[in-house]
Amino acid sequence: MPKNQNTSAQRAREAARRGAKYTQALRSGAELPPAAGDDGFGGHEFQYESRTDLFRCTECRMYEVTARDVPDGDPIRPCKGLPGWGGDTEQVYLLVTENPELPSGYGAAFATRIRDTGIGRPPRYSWRDGRMLVESVPGVVGELARLVEGITFTVDGRQVPAVSSVEHLTVGAGRAIIAENRAAYAAKYGEPA
After folding, report:
1. 74 pLDDT exceeds 80?
2. What domains are defined for the chain?
């Protein structure tokens, strides 16, 4: 069971998720500026669960009502990520390029296979022009890259690799791609509700 953190530790952890140094944020105790592209979900990926009639995060398994029940005035508790991440808050990204031999329509299945590894996830606005951004942590990103390179689909009776290349990216480069993809989405479909 995780130890309860005080408010300054929670803020320092969130600052670390946004690219700041954890210790500096903890010592300063300063208020955090809003994250670039913060959508009000605190990193959670909520999906409806019919048996409970509630929304649950697919990453940390916390229910939305619990995540939003924050006594200190914060809008939402931040997502702790996948259990396989081991509580590591530092992020890194993989940029995977779809194999051109793979017919269209495999994007959702590919994203699901990545999520099923338990050590990576495609964040919001991760897919564009045949390339998908995958979020992970430094301790397991090598293993994730190996697993992603091994994902195949059966097409016309033969196994076709899902990706043609996998690039390792820094936090800044990954977040820049997310910002570009979000801007492209907004230009094409309008701002998300």
Report:
1. no
2. 7-84 (no CATH), 87-189 (3.30.70)
pLDDT bin (cut points 50, 70, 90) of residue 30 is: very low
Mean pLDDT value of segment 74-91:
70
Average pLDDT over residues 84-108: 81
Q: Count other Cβ atoms within 10 Å, centred on residue 102.
A: 19
Distances (CA, A) of 59 to 85, 121, 122, 135: 10, 8, 11, 12
| 3-state helix/strand/coil string of the chain | CCCCCCHHHHHHHHHHHCCCCHHHHHHHCCCCCCCCCCCCCCCCCEEEECCCCEEEECCCCCEHHHHHCCCCCCCCCCCCCCHHHCCCCCCEEEEEEECCCCCCCCHHHHHHHHHHCCCCECCCCCEECCEEEEEECCCCHHHHHHHHHCCEEEECCEEEECEEEEEEECHHHHHHHHHHHHHHHHHHHCCCC
Q: Rounded CA gap, 99 and 120, in Å?
A: 19
Extract the tokens encoding 28.
């300063």
